[in-house]
Design a protein that fits this description.
With 136 residues, this protein is an alpha+beta fold. It has 2 domains: 3-75, Double Stranded RNA Binding Domain (2-Layer Sandwich); 85-131, no CATH class. It has helices at residues 39-59, 75-81, 87-94, 98-106, 113-131, and strands at 3-11, 18-22, 34-36, 67-73. The N and C termini lie far apart (42 Å).
């Protein structure tokens, strides 16, 4: 059975590079992380890092557990990974200033815990609305 492990995905302020890191400490001595010019590249590099660490562990007569990856995004990496999300439209749906949302997305400003919750709730609402769409 695979061990579920959360990885943070974050963008660097003012830059176009992203990284991942393990949030959960599962008691392994091998570092698994990723880097890339996009959030998607960083996530793909995380999987490659995991494979490299499994090989390194085997060379050391050690075993790395099977892992189920769960990625947790900061605002910058979220809008980069889900690039089809329109920052201004999400801000409008939330009822906040679009330039403030762009500052969150670029990493210039950090949203409060309450604001993060509002953003997440708005995204869940959008998701629910999309689930009801029927095309003909």
């Amino acid at each position: 059975m695979a061990t579920k492990v959360r990885f943070g995905v974050e963008g660097r302020i003012g830059e176009k590079d992203f990284s991942t890191y393990m949030i959960d400490d599962i008691g392994i001595k091998y570092g698994i992380h990723g880097y890339g010019t996009t959030a998607k590249e960083a996530i793909e590099d995380t999987y490659a890092s995991y494979e490299e660490m499994k090989d390194l562990a085997a060379e050391n007569n050690d075993v790395l557990p099977d892992m189920e990856f769960e990625f947790v995004f900061d605002i910058a990496s979220l809008f980069n990974y889900y690039s089809y999300l329109n920052i201004s439209a999400v801000a409008k749906k939330m009822g906040i200033n679009a330039s403030l949302m762009r500052k969150y997305a670029s990493g210039v400003c950090n949203p409060s815990k309450e604001r993060l919750e509002q953003i997440q709730n708005c995204l869940k609402k959008i998701s629910s609305e999309l689930m009801t769409v029927k095309l003909y």
